[in-house]
Amino acid sequence: MDSKASYHVHTVFCDGKNSPEEMVLAAIDAGMSAIALTAHAAWPFATEWHLAPARYGDYLAEARRVKAAYSGRIEVWCGFEADYIAGLTAPDPSTYGRFDPEFLVGSVHYVTEGSRDVAGPPWSIDAPTAEVAEGIERCYGGNAKRAVGAYWATVREMVSSCAFDVLGHLDVLRKRNGELSFFDEESGWYKGELRETVRAIARSGIVVEINTGGIARKALDDVYPSAYLLGLLARAGVPVTVSSDAHAVGDIDCAYDRAYRAAREAGYGSLSFFTGNGWRQEAL
Ligand SMILES: [Zn+2]
Ligand SMILES: [Zn+2]
Hints:
By secondary structure, this protein is an alpha/beta fold. It has one domain: TIM Barrel (Alpha-Beta Barrel). It has helices at 20-29, 56-69, 93-96, 129-140, 144-161, 177-180, 188-204, 213-216, 227-235, 256-266, and strands at 5-9, 34-41, 75-83, 103-107, 110-111, 123-124, 166-167, 207-211, 240-243, 270-274, 279-283. A seven-stranded parallel β-sheet has the order 1-2-3-4-7-8-9. A two-stranded antiparallel ribbon has the order 5-6. Helix 3 (93-96) links the parallel strand 3 (75-83) and strand 4. Helix 9 crosses helix 10 (256-266). The protein is globular, with a radius of gyration of 18 Å. One zinc ion (ZN) binds at residues 81, 107, 109, 126, 168-169.
């Protein structure tokens, strides 16, 4: 495989440590042919780790400047990692069209479906361990199976109702399961949720990323999605790409060897690379 890319990269405009230019230079150093700058976005809302609504213009101007400055050396796509929160914000042109993004990662970080605390903050699944546990208690009465089912229902709702390019860190709720053991990945009901979700993804035509960010942040010694889920995706013919979800220059291609191996072991013979107008496949 000649090409190497990460279509999921953060910068100082959200919760990253480095500037867009530093991330582009790191990608060139790592031998990448393309990256997508994908600031955390929940337009028109924001938390402390999202791009602030007042800074969308500055972010896009700098991303586009860097894209032009390095155009002969690397492809840079300017976009967002857009949150899906039912009824509030979505990774879809109806929300982001005004910013004319070239690339959208669709991610679920918050789950509101079936929450019994509709007035409080939603369950945050990518949060520190104590916060993930607190959300299961407060929003789902301690019923982790209901909480996990609500996450997968939210992912299905997002892929069925929104138009975006890549599905971000698909089973990120595994991130805190090592410490919390709040669900059993081997249980029949969990595998049923995965099968139902894979069917929805296959219908959507959206590309799934193999994301190494949990390894970079030492939260999980594995890529997302799990080997089992990747196998289901491969059998359903869902295309995959490899992304680092890097928040710092040192993580731009963290654990790519493991991601490629995971893809091969799941049965993939090729990876997807963005063309600006769809995707091309390149043999693994
Ligand atoms: Zn994310
Ligand atoms: Zn991210």
